[in-house]
Write a structure and sequence with these properties.
Strand 1 and strand 2 form a beta hairpin. The chain is globular and about 70 Å long. It is mostly helical. It has a two-stranded antiparallel sheet with strand order 1-2. The longest helix has 36 residues. Helices cover 67% and strands 1% of the residues.
Length: 578
């Protein structure tokens, strides 16, 4: 019995069995993720204050070094370390299952840590200024590519370890149907395997080129392979974020998925179609047929969009149904007004849905499609889109779930609870202002990845085309929004670090209303022989979620309006050939 206790503990809050090996590995990945989030946030502030033309903080060498570092640290290192922690949690703790081959998990973590530290050092010190994409003929030292490849192999091993844990749990009889949370993580893991293998296939020839083993690298082939990683990395986040959305809805309101089967189908649609959208990065690349481009960024990508629209209705509908069952049945939106807005997890859920769906998702479908893409690509509108999806939506969701999982895993009382309640709103406000400023500047044609849009140090290129007063206002919004968002990010880091280091040790951290069934599958209860509905499946009259339907229709109307405006603007562009 003592031997079993040394290997597992029972969580006093949820009743779940926690494998101690898994617990330690979750801690290591989570702490590393937060460290990279802090580094990336600091770099983001410096970059934003440079793009704010009135301040123009950094010299050009530092700007490009920090842009390169910021992209890798935030989109790859912070996100993937956090997601690996989630994979371990979803395949062990959530299933009350033992971890299989803990050594494999530590090997994966060690490779990811070494690779990420070396790559970050080379980028931030200016030795590997090749930007996030590393397009040839730009060349970094061989050690940089080796470090990124080591990280990628470590991440692949972490995903394989997740799958091994699931297989082990199934063989031992610990789990039947996977909880929706874990099922969504499985979707993320499948996308991750594809993305990481594509990235390795792109970077390995470049590494061989830098050490002189191959004479050259075809830039077109590199771009085709690379965007399997560059685009796919964002879609790993999408599937993992959806898992967190369902978890936060359940944790904070007691929501049960209105139709779990449809939600699972939506995740399968991601696995089948989401990476097809990578082709929108190659819209004007030579050597790729027009039909290939159009099929991938229209018909195939729409399959993934349908998946997102299912979640966009399912999650608010689940929350509305839960709140109406608690007695908030009056009118269309009483349930929403009486929702737990003071709960950090709910605040993170709502702000993440808004930032990802409204601010980022709509723009992503528009600029990701054929034709309309031409008026936005290589402008600030593109980074505005993925900052709203990954930096805003995904990060906000991951922050929200951390307020529950960190106290449970570290067995610490959450500190600075008032900060935790306020932090999602501060972060969302900053990212909204930032996204609007960056997106509108891009709409006015301001280029991305550019140190000085006035070319002040190059007399032959000197221009005032981007010195319009509107652009100055938009870039000021970019800078001010970044300052507010970084303050929100710093609040999160302070709460989490304070909890880990200073929080009172306790087996029962106070987390509000939380139950072990929050992440578990909804039991399917059959009606009785006389047609009565069982207690597990309550009866309802009329349409159950009118408020969520109105919200979904409003979202679709906004989507259609912005899409139509984009096509109108495309028709207004003079395409004269001289």
């Amino acid at each position: 019995m003592q031997a079993v206790a040394a290997l597992q503990r029972r969580c006093q809050v949820t009743g779940l069995l926690v494998d101690r090996s898994a617990e330690r590995l979750i801690m290591a990945n989570a702490v590393t993720a937060v460290v990279y989030l802090a580094i990336g946030g600091l770099l983001a502030l410096l970059i934003a204050l440079t793009r704010w033309q009135a301040i123009h903080l950094l010299p050009y060498e530092s700007f490009y070094a920090f842009v390169s570092t910021h992209g890798m640290v935030m989109l790859i290192f912070w996100i993937i370390f956090f997601e690996v922690a989630g994979l371990i949690f979803g395949s062990t703790v959530l299933l009350s299952a033992r971890m299989v081959v803990p050594t494999l998990g530590w090997i994966a973590y060690g490779m990811m840590l070494i690779g990420s530290v070396v790559a970050t050092y080379l980028m931030v010190t200016g030795q590997a200024i090749v930007m996030f994409t590393s397009y040839p003929p730009l060349k970094a030292p061989p050690l940089y590519y080796a470090a990124v490849l080591v990280f990628a192999v470590g991440a692949i091993l972490a995903v394989v370890h997740f799958i091994i844990n699931l297989v082990g749990a199934r063989l031992r009889g610990d789990v039947g149907s996977l909880p929706l949370f874990t099922f969504a993580l499985l979707g993320a893991a499948i996308i991750a395997l594809w993305s990481l293998l594509a990235g390795a296939a792109a970077l390995l020839p470049v590494f061989l080129w830098t050490v002189g083993l191959v004479p050259s690298v075809d830039p077109g082939v590199y771009r085709l392979l690379y965007w399997g990683l560059g685009h796919g990395a964002q879609q790993i986040n999408l599937a993992a974020m959806v898992a967190v959305w369902y978890g936060l809805a359940s944790l904070t309101t007691g929501a049960k998925v209105v139709n779990e089967g449809f939600s699972r189908i939506a995740i399968v649609l991601y696995v089948l179609f989401i990476n097809m959208g990578a082709m929108h990065h190659l819209q004007v690349d030579p050597g790729i047929g027009t039909w290939v481009r159009n099929v991938n960024v229209s018909y195939f990508m729409y399959g993934a969009v349908i998946g997102s629209l299912i979640h966009a209705f399912s999650i608010p509908a689940s929350v509305e149904l839960a709140m109406r069952e608690k007695g908030f049945r009056q009118g269309l939106f009483t349930w929403l007004r009486r929702a737990p807005w003071g709960e950090p997890g709910f605040a993170a859920l709502v702000t993440s849905l808004f930032l990802f769906g409204v601010m980022g998702g709509v723009s992503g479908v528009i600029i990701g499609g054929p034709f309309v893409n031409m008026i936005s690509h290589n402008t600030l509108l593109v980074p505005a889109h993925f900052h709203m999806t990954v930096v805003a939506g995904t990060t906000a969701a991951f922050m929200g779930i951390s307020y529950y999982l960190v106290p449970l895993i570290f067995q610490r009382q959450l500190v600075l609870r008032s900060w935790a309640r306020l932090q999602p709103y501060v972060y969302a406000l900053g990212m909204t202002i930032f996204g609007l400023g960056m997106g509108l500047a891009g709409h006015w044609g301001v280029p991305r990845r550019h140190w000085d849009i006035t070319f002040s140090t190059a007399r032959a290129l000197r221009t005032d085309i981007f010195e319009q007063p509107e652009i100055a206002v938009f870039l000021a919004g970019l800078g001010i929004g970044a300052i507010i968002a970084v303050i929100g990010g710093a609040m999160f880091v302070a709460v989490i670090v304070g909890t880990v280091l200073l929080g009172r040790r306790t087996a029962t951290p106070a987390l509000g209303k939380i139950a072990p069934e929050a992440f578990l599958p909804v039991p399917i209860a059959a009606g009785g022989s006389d047609g009565e509905v069982s207690a597990a499946e309550p009866s309802h009259e009329g349409f159950e979620v009118p408020g969520a339907l109105v919200l979904a229709l409003a979202f679709l109307a906004l989507f259609a309006l912005l899409y139509a405006i984009s096509w109108y603007e495309l028709s207004s562009v003079p395409w004269g050939i001289h």
